[in-house]
Amino acid sequence: MLLIDCPWCGPRSEREFRCGGESHIVRPETPDAVDDAAWADYLFYRHNTKGVSFERWLHRFGCGRWFNVARATTDHRLAAVYGMTDPRPELEDGR
Amino acid sequence: MNRYSAWSLFRAGLERQRNWQPAWRDAEPKKAYDAIVIGGGGHGLATAYYLAKVHGIRNVALLERGWIGGGNTGRNTTVIRSNYFFPESTRFYDHALTLYEGLSRELNYNIMFSRRGMWTLAHDRHGLEVLRRSVNAMLRNGAEVELVGGEEVLRRIPGLCPTRFPVLAGLLQPRGGTARHDAVAWGYARAADGLGVDIIQNCEVLGFDIRGGAIRGVRTSRGDIASDRVGMAVAGHSSAMAKLAGFRLPIVSYALQAFVSEPMKPVLDTVVLAPATGVYVSQSDKGELVLGGALDLFPSYAQRGSLPALEQVAGGLIDMFPQFSRVRLLRQWAGIVDVVQDSTPILGQSPIDGLYLNCGWGTGGFKAIPAGGHCLAHVMATGKTHPLAAAFTLDRFRTGALIDEAAASGIAH
Amino acid sequence: MSGTRVAGGVAIDRSHRLDFRWAGKQYRGFAGDTLASALLADGVRLFGRSFKYHRPRGLIAAGLDEPNAIVQIERGAATIPNLKAPYIELYDQLDAQPVNAWPSLGFDLMAVNGLFKRFIPAAFYYKTFMWPNWLLFEPLIRKAAGLGRAPQERDPDLYSQTSAHCDVLVVGGGIAGLAAALAAGRRGERVILATGGALWGGRLAGSDQLVEGQPATDWIAHTLAELDTLPNVLRRNRMLATGHYDQGLVALCERMTDHLPIDARIGPRQRLWHVRAGQVILATGAFERPLVFANNDLPGVMLAGAATAYLHRYGVLVGQNIVVATNNDSGWHAAMSLAQGGARIAAIVDARPSPATSLLAAAEALDITVRCGTAPEKAVGGKQVRAVDVARLDAASRLTGRTERLVCDTLLMSGGWNPAVHLHSQAGGALRLDPAQHSFMPAALPGSPSIGAAAGDFAIKTSLAAARGTEFVPVSTPIRPLWSLARTAEPDPLAWVDFQNDVTAADVALAARENFRSVEHLKRYTTLGMASDQGKTSNVNGIGILSQFLGRPMEAIGTTRFRPPYDPTTIGVFAGHRIGDGLAPRRRLALDAWHVAAGAKLEEYGGWMRPVAYLQEGETEAQAVAREVIAVRTRVGLFEASPLGKIEVKGPDAARFLDRIYVNTISTLKDGRCRYGVMLDENGTIFDDGVVTRLADDHFLVGTTSGHASAIAEILEEWLQCEWVDLRVLVQDVTTCWAVLTVAGPKARDVLQTLEGTIDWSASAFPHMQHRAGLIAGMNARVARVSFSGELSYEVSVPWRQADRLGERLTAAGAVHGLTPFGIEALMTMRIEKGFLHVGSETDGTTQPQDVGFAAVLANKKSDFVGRRSTRRPDSLRGDRRQLVGVAVDGPLPVEPGAHVVTPGREDAIGSEGWITSSAWSPTIGAPVALAMVNGGAARMGETVKIWDLGTWRKGRIVPPCRYDPDGSRLNG
C-alpha cells in the first residue's frame, strides 16, 4: 500500500487516491486539425514506462486536488511530487 | 524424446526414474534463424510449436529472459473460457478452447485441462439483462452456454451463499474450466523442442536490428541473432520491447493479483465469478482455493503482492462463500498484464516489417494461449493475418473499430 | 518409550490442568502447553499423514516451520483446517483431529500409495492420465489431495483491522528483538514490538544459558519488565508479521481469542494491523534445516532445536535415548541441554571431522559417544525410529565405509540454520550466500535492518550489540554443508526434503535431469516448498541438493521469491469489516421508511435501495407496475428521484466550460431554463445524460443519471484541474444535499398548487423545461419542470432532511387526486413508451451520440467538446452502426431485454443484428413495447425482424422509439 505525499494534505494512504494515468499528455489544440493517427496517439498510445513514470493522481477522499507524481513502476518508489501545471522534473533515472 | 504414458512411467519406475531425458534442451543461440520468437511464456512457446508443427518452420529460436513459463503463464489463476460477447472474440476464444481440449494428447503432456464449468453471476436486474444479452450473443455465435435462474445457481454451486450481492442468475459455460498453467508452458516447450526449436533461456533481448523499416535480427545478452521474422509475445513488457524497436503501443501495464489458500479436501468443483466484486474462485486439484480479483489501481511492473487488493478480494470471496472466512490464505503474488482500452488482443503486424505482435491480453491471456500462438505463427509464417485475428489489428485504435468486450458484456476480462 | 514430562518449562502452569481431545481420545495437558507439547508429553508420536504417499509422520519442529503435524481443530462453524500443532495453544476442551488420513491416523488406507511410490515420482501426473482424458482421473486425484476440510458454516467470528504508526517496529520477540525494542524505547522513540507466538525470548525462552551474566529466563523477564515501564513502547505477543509490503508497510495478524476456551472468547477473533514505521527491525530468527537421508521422515526424527524448545518451554523430553546428528555446533548444545534435562544421549554424530575441542570435552564429561566425520545414512524403524545407521563421509561428503547402527528412540538432526529472511525479501532486500553457514543471508536494506539470527548471527553478544545499533563483527563456526546424504551421486528416493508435499532428494534429481533446473522450475515441477510451511524446512535443502547434483554453486541457483503471507493467515482477517454492507454500503433514500410503509419492494439500483413497485394486497409485481403507470398517465403519481445526480457548476467561465463538456450547446441557455444534454468520454462514447439548468448567468445545475454523480463531478474536476486550468469554474456535487420528489401526471399541477409558497405553477408562468426556486410550505425548494414519464411532471427538491415534511404535504394534498406512489419499474415502463434513452441500458461502451438520435445535434455544434473528434473517425461514420429503434413485438407478452434481433432468413447464420435493450408491457398502449440497438436500424423502419431469446423465436417490427404522445403535448400541457 503506497504512501503518497499529497502536496496539500501530506502523506496519506493509497486508499485515499486515484491514479489518473500518464501525465503531460497534450490534448491537440484543434482536434479537428489532427489526423486519425495523431488522435489515436493522444487517446491510447502511452509510454507505459518501466522505470520512472510521470503520472497524475487525485486525492479523491481528501482535498480533491489533482497533482503530478514521478513514480518508479518497478518498486513504487515516489521520486517526486509536483503541481499539475509544473514542468516535468529532471530526474537522474527519468526516461 | 521419451514418449510419456502410464507404460513409460511404469518402465521408468523399474529403472528408479533415472532414465528420463530433459523435457527440452538448453540450446545455445545460433547466429541466425528462420524465425525468432521473443518471450518464453505460453503464447511464445505455442507460437514456436505451431511454427514448427503447422508451418514446417523448425529453425526457430525462442528467447526467454528468465525461465520459461515464469511470467503470467505461471502466475495466473488458470481459468479457461470463451464466454465473450462479440463474434470476433467468441470465435477466437472458442478456437483456443477447442485446442485446449485436445492439447494434452497433441503435446503428449498432461496439462490437466479440467472442464469443470465457469459461472458468471448477475446480482441485480440490470446485471441480469446484461448477462442475458451475453448469453444470447454467445449462443448466436455458437458457444455452448446456459442462463440459469438464481435459485438453481445456488442449488448447483453448493456452498454459494451470498450476503451482500444476491444472485439473480448465472451464466454457465460448461466447457470452461481450468488447466495446470506450468504444464501448458512445459508441454509446448517439450513438443517444440522435439520438433527442433531452440529454447534459449536466460537470454534477454536488448535491442533490434532494424534496417529500412524492416527487422533484420535481435541483439541479446547472448549475442546478436539474425532473422527477418520476429514475433514478440511478452505480455506486460510489450511496451518496453516496443520501445527498443522505436515505437509505442496503446498498452498500459498493471499488476494483477492472485491468491491461493491452504489445500483442503474438495469443496468447490467449478469456477465462480461475481461481477459486483470482480472476485473469482476455483479449487485446484491440489485442494487450494485459487482466487483472483480486479487489477491494481495504478500502472505497475512490480510482480509483488498488494495488501489493498488482498483485502478487497478477501471481502469479495467471503461475500460469496461466508464459510471460507476461517480458511487461511497461503500465498499471494502478482503478474504484469498488458491492458488495452477495449480488452481485446493485438495480434499481427507491428509498425516494423517482419516484426509481429501478440499482446493486449489484459487479464485474459492464459485462456487464449493456443489460439494466440496459432495466429502469431500463422502471420509470421505467411505474412498474412489469420482470419480469426482479423479484427485484432493495431489499426483499430486509429479507425475507432474497438471491440469493447469489457464495456459490452459487463464481464471482467 | 518416548515423551515424558520432566522438570522445567517456562511456559506451562502445572497447577492448571486442561482437558482436550485428539483423534477422538481424551488427553490432559497444562495451561501454556501447545497441542504439540501436550501430546508429546503423553508419548504421542504419530501426528499426521503426508500429502501424497500418506506416510506416517511425527513432529519435527516446535514452531510454524512444522510441516507434518497438520491438524484440524473443532467442529461445525468453529472448525479450522490445517493448523500446525506446535502453534496451537492448548485451551480447555480443545478438540483436534488429524487430517488426510482414512479411516484413521494409525491405519490409513491411502498409505497404499507409498507402495507404488517408485512409479509415481514427483510430477508423474504430467506424463500420464492423458488417455482417454484427464476428466476421467481428476475426481480421484482431487479426493486424494487436500489436507483438512473447509468449514461448512458461516464464520461465527468477527475480525477487526487497525492502523498504527511508530518510529520503530521490531518484528520478533527473541533476545535481539527485545534488546532492540528496549534500546529504541530508552531513546524515547515510539516502538511497537511484536512476536508471533505466545512466548517471549525466542529460542532462549526457558533456557538457563547466560545472557549478559544472568540466566536467559531472568534476562528476558527483566527486559520485559523495563519495556512495560516505557509508555512509548507497545508490545504484543500472538502478533505475527505476515507481510512486508510497499514502502515499508507491515501487516501483522494478532490472534486475540484463539488461545482461550471457546466460551470465554469475547470480541474479535483476530485483528490485522497495518503498521507504518520509520524503521522496521527484523529480528525474526532462523529455521533449522533437517538432514536429508533415507527414512528421515520416520516419527521420532526431529530437529535438534525443537527438542530443546520442548524441554525449555514445556518441560517435555522428546525421547529417552537420543542420537543427535549435526553438522554444526548447535546440535551439540541441544544434546547437552537434553542430557541435563534427563535424557540419555546415545551418541553425537557430527559430519565435521574435528569439532571444537570444547565440545568434545563436554561430551566426554557426560560420557557421550561421539562420531566425527560421520552422518546418518538411514533411520531404522516401522512407525517410529528404533535406530539409526551412520557411516563416514568422504571428502566429497558422500557416505562411505561400513555402517554402524546406533540404537535410539529419538534421532535429532541439525543441518545448519536458515535466517528467516522472508520479510526482508518481501521488502525487496537482496540475499547473499554465506560461505561459512551455507545459508542465504539478508544483504543490507535501508530502513529495515535484520539482526540476530535473522541476520545469521547466532551469538548472544553480537546479536545484542546489533540490536543496540553498535558496530560488530559476528563470528560463526563454520558448518559442514550436508545436502543429500547418500553413497553415490544419486540421491536417495526415500530421503525427504519437503515433508508435507512428499518431495524426496531423488525427485530433485529427477527434476534436474529433466531440465527443470531453474529454482522456480524445481519448485513448480516437484511442488517443493509449496506446502503450508512454504518451504521453511525444505527450500534451502532443495537448492543445496540441486547445486550438488548439477555441480553449480548455490548462489548461482538462487532462491524462489518469498511471497506473503509469512505463515498462512485467516482470510476473514484480511476482509475485516468488508462483509455485508461493509463491503459496499447500500444507500437509502430520503423517504426510505415511508416507501417501506407504503408497501414498496426495495431492490438495489446503482447502489441505492429503491422501490421496484408498491405492492398492494394480492398484487403481482407486474400488476402493481401497470396500476402505477395508469395512475400516472390518468391522475398523478409520486416518485422519489433523490439519487439523480446534482452538480453545481459556477463561475465566470461556467458556460464556456459546459459547452466543452456537452454534445449540446449550453451557453445559449437562458436563466431559469433547462436543457437535456449528453456527455461523451474522449473516445466518443456516451458517458452520461441529464438535464442542465441555468440558475444564473454564471451558475448551472448539472443533472446526471442516478448513481453517477460523483464520477461525473470527478471528471469535471479533472478537466478543470488538469487540462483547462485557465477556466474560472467551481464544481460541487450536491446530490445528497437535496431530496427530490417527482410529482407526475395530468393532476400534478393541481396537487402542487394547493401547497402554500412562492412558486407560480400556472402553465404560462412555469412552462416545460424551466426551473424555479422558491418556498414550498416553508421549505427552500428548487423545482424543475422536466419529464421522464412523458406526463406533466415536476421534480421538487428540498433539503434532504426536510424530505419527510414534503412527502407528508404532498400525500395530504394529493389524496383527493388519487396520488399514487410509483416505483422504478413503472417509471421505466413509461420512459420506454416514450422512447427515452436510459444510459447503461440502451448504451454500452461502444455507443456514440449519432447512434441514439443525436446526429443532428452533433453536426450542428460548431465548437469542440470532449469526444467530438472521436465521433469523426472512420468507424464512427459507418452507416451500419447499431442504432436506437423501437420494436413492436407480436403477441401479448414483452420480450426479455437481452434478446437478440435477427433478420428473417438469417436465423441459422452466426451472430445477430443487435439486441433488445429495454422492454416492458405497456398498460397505456395495451401491448408490449421495446427499444433495441440494431445495425443500421434508423433506416430499417417498418422492417420485420425475428427476436431470439435462449433458443426461442418471436416476431417483431422495427418502429420509431417513441410509442406514446410523440408530439409531447402531454408533457407540455
From TrEMBL, chain A:
One of its GO terms (molecular function) is sarcosine oxidase activity. GO terms for biological process: tetrahydrofolate metabolic process. InterPro entries: SoxD, SoxD_sf. It comes from the Bacteria. Pfam families: SoxD. This is Sarcosine oxidase subunit delta. It comes from Sphingomonas tagetis.
From TrEMBL, chain B:
It comes from the Bacteria. Keywords: Cytoplasm, FAD, Flavoprotein, FMN, Nucleotide-binding, Oxidoreductase. The keyword Membrane does not apply. Pfam families: DAO. The keyword Cytoplasm applies. Its EC number is 1.5.3.24. SUPFAM superfamilies: FAD-linked reductases, C-terminal domain (SSF54373), FAD/NAD(P)-binding domain (SSF51905). Coiled coil: none annotated. GO terms for biological process: tetrahydrofolate metabolic process. Residues 36-79 form the Rhodanese domain. GO terms for cellular component: cytoplasm. GO terms for molecular function: nucleotide binding; sarcosine oxidase activity. Its cofactor is FMN; FAD. Belongs to the SoxB family. This is Sarcosine oxidase subunit beta.
From TrEMBL, chain C:
Keywords: Oxidoreductase. Residues 882-965 form the Aminomethyltransferase C-terminal domain. The keyword Oxidoreductase applies. Residues 592-861 form the GCVT N-terminal domain. Residues 495-576 form the SoxA A3 domain. Residues 167-429 form the FAD/NAD(P)-binding domain. The keyword Oxidoreductase applies. One of its GO terms (biological process) is tetrahydrofolate metabolic process. GO terms for molecular function: sarcosine oxidase activity. Pfam families: Fer2_4, GCV_T, GCV_T_C, Pyr_redox_2, SO_alpha_A3. Belongs to the GcvT family. PANTHER family: AMINOMETHYLTRANSFERASE, AMINOMETHYLTRANSFERASE, MITOCHONDRIAL. This is Sarcosine oxidase subunit alpha family protein. It comes from Sphingomonas tagetis. The lineage of its organism: Bacteria, Pseudomonadati, Pseudomonadota, Alphaproteobacteria, Sphingomonadales.
